[in-house]
Amino acid sequence: MTDIFQADSRSNAAEFTVSEISGALKRTVEDAFGNVRVRGEISGYRGPHSSGHAYFALKDDRARIEAVVWKGTFSKLKFKPEEGMEVIASGKLTTYPGSSKYQIVIDNIEPAGAGALMALLEERRRKLAAEGLFDDARKQLLPYMPRVVGVVTSPTGSVIRDIIHRITDRFPLHVLVWPVRVQGETTGAEVAAAVQGFNALDPLGAIPRPDVIIVARGGGSLEDLWGFNDEIVVRAVAASGIPVISAVGHETDWTLIDHAADMRAPTPTGAAEIAVPVKAELQATVASLAARLRGCVSRNADRKRQALRAAARALPSPDQLLGTRRQRFDEAGSRLTRALATNIEAKRLHFRGVRLSPTVLERRIAEVRRRVVRDGERLPALFRNLVGTARSRFSRDAGRVTPAALTRRLDGHGQALRALERRSDACMERSLERREAALHRAQLRLRIEPIEENLRDRRRRLDQAERLLRSVSYQSILERGFALVTNDAGGLIRRAGEVSRGEALTIEFADGNVAAISAGGDGARSGKTSAKPPAGGQGSLF
After folding, report:
1. pLDDT digits (tens, 9 = 90+) for 349-361
2. How far apart are CA 226 and CA 122, in angstroms?
3. From 305's CA, which of 13, 229, 462, 505 has a CA 20 to 30 Å away?
């Protein structure tokens, strides 16, 4: 019995550790399957973990597989998982050695019902993006104050009423509506024709050409909004010479026209708010800024004037400014000589106190030599440990790295780098345009403001002179009921004794002149009945 037992214990089978077996299984599963698409029902989902990762399971009526979504991938998912929902998950199969189970690391999740449409939409999006139709560099800036807004939508829905109501409240202007069907097979062709038609209008024609176009529709399912994913619509919006605002669906709805448009609005009402500013706010802001500017200029000039006068009075003489510093410099110069002698003496005493002998030096050299020999003996073992650790790490990582994975990572980094370069160029161009526009406006203000200030000053002085002239003119006295009497020679009559009987007179009122004859004559007043003196007494001039 003893011989049999000893013979069985000696075997030629290789021995493996648990970690080695788990690693080999992990590499086998990952190499054999790679990327897979799994359809199943979400089970055991309780939301993301505190670490940001999400753990749940995919199951059907006969099997179950564990699933995990890492934190970085979970934040980028367009569709968030929910308990009990049937989905199509894309990812890689791997194993988890800690509990001896296999699982899928999910890269993307989409609803199982809309899987075909979503796949078609994603393929179309990648194709159009590769052509550069979604690049930020080709997007146009929206006009700040448009004169005409073109709207492409259904004329019978509530969307157009919401847009017109919002534009009327904020900044009333001309709204031009191009009616289209917003659901059905003809939606794409009609919307594309509307955008092209707006661009074909003559800016000086009978129908005004819009400064901005709003493509709007209410919310709906993926099938309802599918017409706005047509390639013809995306190409028409991308080729539009007029800036386009996309307002299709609600804030959570995304279509391909949103990527091609120059601006995306969450709702049709939001598109109207983006297209036009608030007129009342602009007027109030301009008035407030003008008042603040005038007050600021006046206060700044007064403050500068007062500061200049105060500085002129308080400005000290050069001797007062430099007197204290000259004194400090002389004191520092006198202390420097003494400090130098003291320092030299201290160094000399320290040097005399240092005692060096051959015995001390030999003892220190021997101690250093022992440390060097001890460290030299430890170096081979340390080197072998480092080599062994590096070799095991290299063997472990060699199974994970494949040429295909490296190629994919290099392609991804290259695309990201090219996208960043395009965005950088676009940002630089827009920054230069804004700076040139600001510089042009500043130059215009510098040329116009002095002229306007001169005109306002001259107008103010002219008004003052006009008021002074009215206050000293005799016309203001005539307005109060008085009259001016002159003779035939134009001389002024101030007293009754200066008038002879029968003399022709002219009486000037505020609204005209009247001819008269002094008492005792037969004259008349400018064609009216002649004046008759009252009975028994001094005659009337009228």
Report:
1. 777 766 666 776 7
2. 13
3. 462
